[in-house]
Every structure is written in structure tokens, then in C-alpha cells.
Amino acid sequence: MEALELLLMYFMTFGGILPPATDWGGMVELTAASPSPGVTPDAYARVETGMTYDDVVALFGAPGISVGRIETSEDCLEWYGWKGRDDFKLLITFDNGRVYSKNYITPTSEEGQSASDAGQTRAGGG
Predict the structure, then answer these.
(1) Under DSSP, is residue 79 helix (H, G, I), strand (E, B) or coil?
(2) Total count of domains within the chain
(3) H-type helices in 1-126, by residue range?
(4) Domain around 7
(5) Domain-located, residue 123
(6) C-alpha–C-alpha distance, residues 32 and 117, integer Å
(7) Domain annotation covers residue 124
(8) What is the pLDDT of residue 72?
(9) What are phi and psi of 82, to 5 degrees?
(10) Domain of 95: which CATH number?
(11) pTM beyond 0.85, yes or no
């Protein structure tokens, strides 16, 4: 079920655009990862569009697990997942190194539901 939840987060994050299947190894790593104590709903609420990956790592106190990447000549989209206590999982999409959108799933969410905070505009590149 955890892989299905992550798949749902991918679709919600980027409108059905998924990384190639060969890049999905991180999903297995995320579901098997030990919880990080700094990955909490409060910390998630402080993640803002435009933050860098390093900003997010500093906020959570742990690096994310790369679960996908798409790179073109103009853009680089990356998905990183974190796992907190009580099976709280989150997925953050980075567009050219900056937070573009964020999603989470809690064990109390109804099956197939998650929350999403997508950026209204593309995060600044660079």
C-alpha cells in the first residue's frame, strides 16, 4: 500500500508526469527508511515554495531519499521523500533546485487521499 500512496503523490504533484520507471528505486528505499524525528507536520508546514534542497534538509534535520528525476535541456525536476514518525510521509518536488510543491500522507488519511500544496508559479530557477 505504501508504494500506491507514493504513486498517488506523484500524480498529485505533477499532474501525472512521472519519472521513468528506472528511476523509481527510491520508493523502495523510502518505505524501508527509518523515521526521522525532525520530519513532522509542523516542519512540513514551514516548507515554502522557492526553498532550496539544503534549506529543507536543515529544516527536517535529515536528507531526503531521491525517488525520481526528469532532466531536460531547460529544466530539472526532482522528487525527494522523507518519512517521519507514525508513518507520516512527505514528497517534495524541486524545480531547478527550488521547492515547487509539497505533499504528505498520514496514516489517518482515508485511503487514496493526501494533501498537496502546489506552487502557483514555477519556483525561481538558478
Answers:
(1) strand
(2) 1
(3) 2-14, 25-32, 41-45, 53-60
(4) 2-116
(5) no
(6) 25
(7) no
(8) 82
(9) -130, 150
(10) 3.30.1450.10
(11) no
32 domain residue, yes or no: yes
Q: What is the mean pLDDT of each run of 10 residues along the chain (126 residues)?
A: 52 50 55 77 94 96 89 86 86 93 72 48 41
Name the CA radius of gyration of the chain, rounded. 13
Looking at the domain assignment, is residue 121 inside a domain? no
Name the packing angle between helices 2-14 and 25-32 (round to 10°).
120
For residue 45, the model assigns a pLDDT of: 93
Asked whether the beta carbons of 10 and 20 are under 8 A apart, the reply is no
Residue 2, all three cell numbers: 505504501
> Quick one: pLDDT at residue 9?
57
8-state DSSP, 8? H
What secondary structure letter does DSSP report for 62?
A: S
53: amino acid identity, one letter? Y
The DSSP secondary-structure symbol of 120 reads S
